[in-house]
Amino acid sequence: MRKSWPYAVVMLLVFFGVPLLLRHFIPDRQQAMTMFTVVMCALAVSTALYFLPRYRRSKQLTDEGLQLLSEGRVAAALERFEASRPLAKVQVIPTYNIGIARLQLWQLPVAGRELSSLESRKDLTPQFRAVLSAAIALVDALEGRLARVEPRLAEARSQVDFPLWFAPLASAVVACREGRWAEARSLLANAALENFNGPLRGLRNVLEVWCVEQLTGEARPVDAIALFGEASHDSLQAAWPELVDYVVKRSLLPPVTPAATSADR
User: Fold this and answer.
1) Of the candidates 47, 54, 49, 50, which has an alpha carbon nearest to the alpha carbon of residue 89?
2) Do the domain assignments include residue 115?
3) Longest dimension (CA), the chain
4) Nearest residue to 204 (alpha-carbon basis) of 243, 241, 233, 237
5) Cα distance between residue 186 and residue 249, in whole Å
6) What angle do CA 95, 162, 66 make, to 5 degrees?
7) What rounded mean pLDDT belongs to the chain?
8) In angstroms, what CA-CA distances link 121 with 13, 99, 116?
9) 181-196, pLDDT tens digit by residue?
10) Could you give the CA distance from residue 193 to residue 196 in angstroms, rounded to a whole number?
11) Which of 20, 104, 106, 139 could form a disulfide with 112 if both were Cys (CB 3.0 to 4.6 A apart)?
12) Which residues span the membrane (predicted)?
């Protein structure tokens, strides 16, 4: 991540060095101060002309990435987010977006590293830190680090008074992994999860079907395409092989029609 201290050093050198040079070449103090003002104004204008277009381009790329993400085009969104990061004034939001995009491509180790890299920053608001913690908790849950999830979520919830979208999904993943199917199904019914789309919504739907099967014995097909999106089965296999095996098996079932369900009853 880009450090800001080199820019501060340069500005200090300019601020203190330019007056010394001007006094050396322009003995008249008043004239030197006038020239210093002109130099600083020119420097400010040139700096603005260099950085402002970069910041605007970064925002444009971020907006495009968010739109693509909302459409389920995660790989294209990731390209936009990665292009926006070196242009951003502060790289927190681009880094977070990259982490979330990689999470939805089920590139869990990379997603975890991107998101965790933000935790040490001192300039995060409590609200953003809570959202970040909930996202990391979901990565932990998917990768099987179950003991970390609930303490992290409890701390995150204590900092905000609004729903954390990733929190119920992370808790549901833990419950499914531990065989607490009724609790998992209740968590998956959380209204906050309706805000998801793409692979995260696919995950929520697959887990719900899995819970129903475990509780009632009714086997239903699942939408593997909605879950994996642009990723392969292998991306989740290492982290949660039982889930992938279940999805592969159930995605081969014929669809359950209302007529067939009524006839069975």
Assistant:
1) 54
2) yes
3) 101
4) 243
5) 24
6) 35
7) 85
8) 27, 16, 10
9) 999 999 999 999 988 9
10) 6
11) 139
12) 7-26, 32-52
Dihedral angle sign, alpha carbons of residues 176, 178, 183, 187: negative
Which residue range(s) make up the domain with 83? 51-124
- Give the tens place of pLDDT for each residue, 111-134: 999 999 999 999 999 999 999 999
Cβ atoms of 103 and 139 within 8 Å: the answer is yes
Q: Which domain CATH number covers 92? A: 1.25.40
pTM: 0.78
- CA 156 to CA 159: how far, in whole Å? 5
Tokens of 148: 């970390």
> Residue type at 109?
P
Distance CA 71, CA 176 (A): 28
DSSP string, the chain: ---SHHHHHHHHHHHHHHHHHHHHH---HHHHHHHHHHHHHHHHHHHHHHHHHHHHHHHHHHHHHHHHHHTT-HHHHHHHHHHHGGG-SS-HHHHHHHHHHHHHTT-HHHHHHHHHTTTT-S---HHHHHHHHHHHHHHHHHTT-HHHHHHHHHHHHTT-SS--THHHHHHHHHHHHTT-HHHHHHHHT-GGGGG--HHHHHHHHHHHHHHHHHHH-------HHHHHTTS-THHHHTT-HHHHHHHHHHTTSPPPPHHHHHHH-
For residue 39, the one-letter residue type is: V
Question: Which two three-digit tokens encode residue 229?
Answer: 């999106």
* Number of domains the chain contains: 1
